[in-house]
Amino acid sequence: METPFEFEQVYDAPIQKVWQALTNENEMSAWYFPQLVKFKPVVGFEFVFSNDGSPYQKEWRVTKVEDGRVLAHSWIYKGYPGSSEVTFELFKEEDRTRLKLTHTGLASFPGDPHFARIRFEGGWRQILGSNLKNHLTKHSQ
């Protein structure tokens, strides 16, 4: 059985601000994926991405929403086998917010180096530990 990848990060921001960063398409394109064109935090909504020419086009769909607390979406690559899911959970810690990310299904992707678990682990550390943290800091001033 595959062990899901989990990552936690605490942000010096209220939970509503972190939720807004996770669910507003303009904010998401700033810290998450710049190719993001359209997003709505509604179960079943299919993300819309611009085609950046990459052979690894994303096909994502919102799978779970608990307003202000949980957002989950599938993580699939068009034309490749495998399906994974990303879950963001938010926890209020006084005036700060702890985000827990869980990424399941990574072992379902092909053995190609692009799909290596270590790439996802490094990517999430960059996205959540740096990109989102900097985004929240910049937007709190």
TrEMBL record:
It comes from the Bacteria. Coiled coil: none annotated. Residues 12-136 form the Activator of Hsp90 ATPase homologue 1/2-like C-terminal domain. Belongs to the AHA1 family. This is Uncharacterized protein YndB with AHSA1/START domain. It comes from Pedobacter metabolipauper.
